[in-house]
Every structure is written in C-alpha cells, then in structure tokens.
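#onboarding

Welcome to the new folks! Below is a worked example of what a typical request in this channel looks like: someone posts a single protein sequence, and someone else replies with the predicted structure as tokens. Don't worry about understanding the tokens yet, we'll cover that in week two.

Example request:
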Amino acid sequence: DGGTSIPALYVTRLLDQVKAERGLPKMIRTDNGPEFVGRTMRTWAARNGVELRFIQPGKPVQNAYIESFNSRVRGECLSQHWFASLSHMRSVIDNWRGDQNHHRPHSTLRYVRPAVFAARCRQHAGGNAPKPASTTTMQTPGL
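Example response:
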C-alpha cells in the first residue's frame, strides 16, 4: 500500500493478514525505521514467535534483496508517473504490481510468472497456500 509513511500498527495489521493467508516466517529483517523498532512491532513479534533482525544503520547492502526491489519499483513504476493524488499513486502501484505478478516472468522463479508459481505451490500443497519454511525470511519494502 503506497503512502507517505507507514505506522507500526498498520505494519502489524498487514503482518496479521499475511499470517492468516500464508503463515509467518521465523525471522523478519528490516531497516531501523520507527515502524519496525518500536514497542508495537516488538510486542507483535514476541506474541507471534518471530525474530526481528535489524540491519546496521546506514548499511542498506545488508538488506540487498529489498533494496533491489525498491530500486525496481522506483525505476519501473514511481519515476514513470506524475501523481495527481495519493489515490492515483496507489492505483498506479496496484496496476504495476498486477503486471509484475501476473504477466512478467521472474528469473528467480526460473522465468515463471509469480501467479503461476504460487498456483503450482498451492496445487502441490493440496490447495493450501504454501507455508514458509523455517529458513524463510520476510523482508520489508520501504516504498
């Protein structure tokens, strides 16, 4: 969800949605933004048995995967548009996300589109969404 900032309570609510739909990772690595380092997030993580790991301040290379993702979002989506409003920006991001997930093959998925890959995972898991493995991590995008 695009916006100007993300409050911690909003982050934990999104993570609760992830939990309901897919389960939770054992560990989440983030930068040191206030939405991640405060009491709300620490309490949520403890309650859900999720370890929080923070990159060193000023060391975005320690979270290179998400930094690469952020660069792609900026280059392919955000920098290509002049937004008239926050709702316009959200609409453009939603369209870009749909294209990324349903129409573009991804090299990390052996050139399969993410929606197709997810459907195969669900089929393999007996119709259920795949649960993260113990080594799975969730990295937070900072749009």
